[in-house]
């Protein structure tokens, strides 16, 4: 661990950890979870979103659901944005509610790229990506599932405009009262489409070599660092997750390189989706990926309390993020501490809808 990210007491899930001047009271992190419950039109955070996040303020840190940096970045109905004044106001109310409960909230900055559909985009535009390679599968549109379309490869001269959208979103995030930001470079969305060679066949300075494939992420990071202290910035990667039909010919080498490039900057944390998000299978050596990076390592995917305690005790992670467990257990830290039973998540209410399956999971009596 680097300066500014030191553990302060005995190292277990319930010991504090510092990201610069921000102290997390524990290492039980709420993972980003798409819930499709922003108010439409406008994709604006609303009162039930504030209630949901405030219920989970006991987390060491909450990472928001993926949040598009611009109207062009969207890929699903009713996901929130962080680009309009209404959205900034909506998020400010969410942050006020979380802070009133003593919590901390980072916003996850998202651009979907080819995982979108003309139905969702301004002027029914064609989605963009690193290269014109269509993903297998279907987009979630307002009218239900529709097959993905072939994306348009971004021109080199368009890339500064993409970076600008992140720069603006980082400013909006500060105005909205967030405690920090996480750059979403995982799970087959735009930044990941540049990182992995299955989707990046470019021959300009954003394709080919590892340095070139990593360039867009590094430019986005620099833009975000114009507004945020490095310790308030995390980056999420998913080296071998095939979700959204993405792959790389040598993920160990690719992501050893990526995390090395992210090192030495005093960033708050590296957030790693370990293995295949759906099956849990994994084959990479995550210790190598971690060793390239000098900040805190946040492990994700398939952890329960016992496995999280083990990975922290063994020095393989500094924090662990929980998705479905946090979705269903607003007081997850208290339940872990008490070894209490956990509520089971209801997949039927994960995406979209109202308070049911959102703010009505009970806390311990
Ligand atoms: C999803 O909506 O399925 C989704 C969004 C963001 C992710 C992963 C999955 O990082």
Mean pLDDT: 97
Cα separation of the termini = 38 Å
Largest sheet: 8 strands, parallel, barrel
What shape does the CA trace take?
globular
Pattern of helices and strands: EEEHEHEEEEEHEHHEHEHEHEHH
| CATH-defined fold name | TIM Barrel
Write the layout of secondary structure elements.
Blueprint: E1 17-19, E2 22-24, E3 28-30, H1 47-55, E4 61-68, H2 85-100, E5 105-110, E6 128-129, E7 138-141, E8 144-147, E9 152-153, H3 159-175, E10 180-184, H4 190-195, H5 210-225, E11 233-237, H6 251-262, E12 269-273, H7 286-291, E13 296-300, H8 305-313, E14 319-322, H9 324-328, H10 332-338
Parallel strand pairs: 3-4, 3-14, 4-5, 5-10, 6-9, 10-11, 11-12, 12-13, 13-14
Antiparallel strand pairs: 1-2, 7-8
Helix pairs in contact: 1-2, 3-5, 5-6
Q: Can you put this structure into words, describing what you see?
A:
With 365 residues, this protein is α/β, with parallel strands linked by helices. The chain has one domain: TIM Barrel (Alpha-Beta Barrel), CATH 3.20.20.70. It has helices at residues 47-55, 85-100, 159-175, 190-195, 210-225, 251-262, 286-291, 305-313, 324-328, 332-338, and strands at 17-19, 22-24, 28-30, 61-68, 105-110, 128-129, 138-141, 144-147, 152-153, 180-184, 233-237, 269-273, 296-300, 319-322. The strands form four sheets. An eight-stranded parallel β-barrel has the order 3-4-5-10-11-12-13-14, surrounded by four helices. It has a two-stranded antiparallel ribbon with strand order 1-2. α1 runs parallel beside α2 (85-100) and α3 (159-175) runs parallel beside α5 (210-225). The longest helix has 17 residues, at 159-175. It starts with 16 loop residues before the first strand and ends in a 27-residue tail after the last helix. The relative contact order is 0.15. It binds P-hydroxybenzoic acid. P-hydroxybenzoic acid binds at residues 34, 66, 76, 186-187.
């Amino acid at each position: 661990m680097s300066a500014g990210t030191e553990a302060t007491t005995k190292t277990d899930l319930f010991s504090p950890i510092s990201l610069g001047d921000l102290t997390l009271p524990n290492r039980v992190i709420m993972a980003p979870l798409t819930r499709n419950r922003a108010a439409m039109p406008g994709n604006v955070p609303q009162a039930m979103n504030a209630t949901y996040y405030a219920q989970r303020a006991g987390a060491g840190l909450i990472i928001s659901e993926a949040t598009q940096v611009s109207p062009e970045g969207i890929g699903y109905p009713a996901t929130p944005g962080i680009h309009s004044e209404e959205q900034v106001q909506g998020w400010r109310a969410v942050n006020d509610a979380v802070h009133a409960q003593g919590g901390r909230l980072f916003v996850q900055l998202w651009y979907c790229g080819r995982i979108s559909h003309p139905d969702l985009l301004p002027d029914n535009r064609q989605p963009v990506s690193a290269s014109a390679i269509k993903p297998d599968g279907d987009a979630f549109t307002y009218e239900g599932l529709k097959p993905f379309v072939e994306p348009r490869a971004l021109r080199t001269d368009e890339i500064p405009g993409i970076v600008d959208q992140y720069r603006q979103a980082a400013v909006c995030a500060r105005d909205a009262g967030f405690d920090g930001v996480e750059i979403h470079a995982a799970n087959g969305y735009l930044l990941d489409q540049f990182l992995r060679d299955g989707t990046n066949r470019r021959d300009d300075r954003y394709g080919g070599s590892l340095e070139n494939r990593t360039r867009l992420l590094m430019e986005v990071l620099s833009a975000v660092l114009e507004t945020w202290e490095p310790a308030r910035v995390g980056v999420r990667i998913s080296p071998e997750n095939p979700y959204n039909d993405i792959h790389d010919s040598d993920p160990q080498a690719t992501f050893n390189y990526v995390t090395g490039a992210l090192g030495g900057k005093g960033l708050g944390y590296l957030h790693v989706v370990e293995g295949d998000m759906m099956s849990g299978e994994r084959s990479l050596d995550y210790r190598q990926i971690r060793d390239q990076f000098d900040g805190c390592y946040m492990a994700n995917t398939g952890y329960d309390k016992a496995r999280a305690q083990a990975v922290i005790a063994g020095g393989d992670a500094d924090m662990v993020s929980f998705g479905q467990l946090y979705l269903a257990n607003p007081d997850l830290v208290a339940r872990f501490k008490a070894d209490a039973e956990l509520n089971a998540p209801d997949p039927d209410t994960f995406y979209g809808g109202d308070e049911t399956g959102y703010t009505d999971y009970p806390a311990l009596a």
